[in-house]
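BUG: 3D viewer hangs when loading the predicted structure for this chain

Environment: internal workstation, default settings.
Expected: structure renders.
Actual: progress bar stalls at 90%.

Input used:
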Amino acid sequence: MSKQKLELTWIGKEKRPKLEPRILLEDPEKSYHAKHRITDSDVFDNRLIFGDNLLALKALEQEFTGKVKCIYIDPPYNTGSAFAQYEDGLEHSIWLGLIRERLILLRNLLIDEGSCWVQLDDNEAHYFKALADEIFGRENFIANVIWNKSYAVRSNAQFFSSAHEHILVYAKDKTRLRLNQFGRSKKQNERYSNPDNDPRGPWQSVTMTISLVGGARGRQYAKTGVSENIFEVTSPSGKVFLPPPNRCWSRNPSGFRKLDAEGRIYWGPSGESAPRLKMYLSEAAEGVIPTTLWADGAEFGHNQDGIRELRALGIGDFPTPKPEKLISKVISLASDPGDLVLDSFAGSGTTGAVAHKMGRRWIMVELGEHCHTHIIPRLKKVIDGEDKGGISESIGWEGGGGFRYYRLAPSLIVNDRWGNPVINPEFNAAMLAEALAKLEGFNYAPSETHWWQHGHSSERDFIYVTTQNLSAEQLQALADEVGSERSLLVCCAAFHGVTAAKAAERWPNLTLKKIPKMVLARCHWGRDDYSLNVTNLPMAEIEKAEPAAAGNSVKNTKSRKAALANAGQGGLFWGNE
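Structure tokens produced before the viewer hung:
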């Protein structure tokens, strides 16, 4: 019997980008820390990364694979709506192709006990579910949480006024996932009262009947027509009760009598109602298992709350920012203080702001200019304790901590004026060493004692990067210093006086590679934008799509986008990618 794979397919699915693993460059002027420590649990080493989030995820892969506890992303919904900050009207298959690449990297970053939460609306949520089943494994799907995003009804809606969004939850490994529970809310505790002055404290009554239809109990009853949990009970007023049809009491006769003797059966205010069990607040669990319907605005917030939170900070509007209450629920379920939270579609920075207040470490990535106009001002107010909105009051937030601002380094390889690939002249020696170390799978860690140790892959395997042409004499001296117990990858502009074959034979502890030849075929160089935005695609790529667009000549931006959709159909990558 042949094995068939169930998967979502689209034209161009097989085309994959050859991503360049960029290095990250910190800009100390944009990094920000509190002037002093507020509490002993302040977190300072958070990361805000400015740049394309697919390249940023690739840049994070080496250091953070298997280290992120909670991923929350709120990607462009592909609705066709254009906002001031971004346009998310992509052809569906292109959207799927770009989300697929991000999802693969995101899964790699999760620890085995971690989870990924993706918020979408009906435009792509169901296609995304099929795609995520393929990447995470269908067995690792946890839930589709429905969030009531708005209390207002849109009078201009054609058929239904959309009031919900989806939050699709996946585990890295469902067998190892342990989600927290919601803390008990004031509203939930208010359900308990003590009208009869019970010395055991506040209580609420719950039903004392269970189903006779399903499960082993139902099968047994269907066979025999008998159940020991079906019997008459008599209330204090003398009224006799039997359980409703297809149900039975939750206790047998002896168990029922025991509860009644303990005063745990509630017969109503006048003693003549059907029996219910008294459940005491003192016995209630500290946590509450979450449901998949998040409809209470007081608990989970609405989009309008997110808008008000930003306006209160005085940093300007942003399209549909998520309320802090919503994000705090995700983070509280999926992580504990000190865990690492990642949002690669940072938007207005809500995830980082909430994670910061909740004592989590965080990484956010954003390409848009609102990284500077919204996120940085917002985080500064959080750190300085000036953000009194959102969840601040409920958790007693007073400020503290900090973050480091990074930008993606430019592409390592560029073409010179004659079209030849060369090392980017913007790279200094340290940047070049770090970039090549990352490309070769080494941890960049320059030694203070050994000038030739720029990084390591193990305790005895090192990398050395130089733009010099090395002679046989220099290589011999290098080999002598490395010694027979260690190995060294030497990345240099050239080596002379010996062939590569002779070098391997003469210096077995050295591996020689020439720059930039050693990396030319590795990646798609010079591409800075893989964002979910058609207008950001390089025009050269769109030009390649034009001949496939039904043979029509593309003369303007609108027809160029049409050509892209017709030719790409989900494949954004042409040529030698």
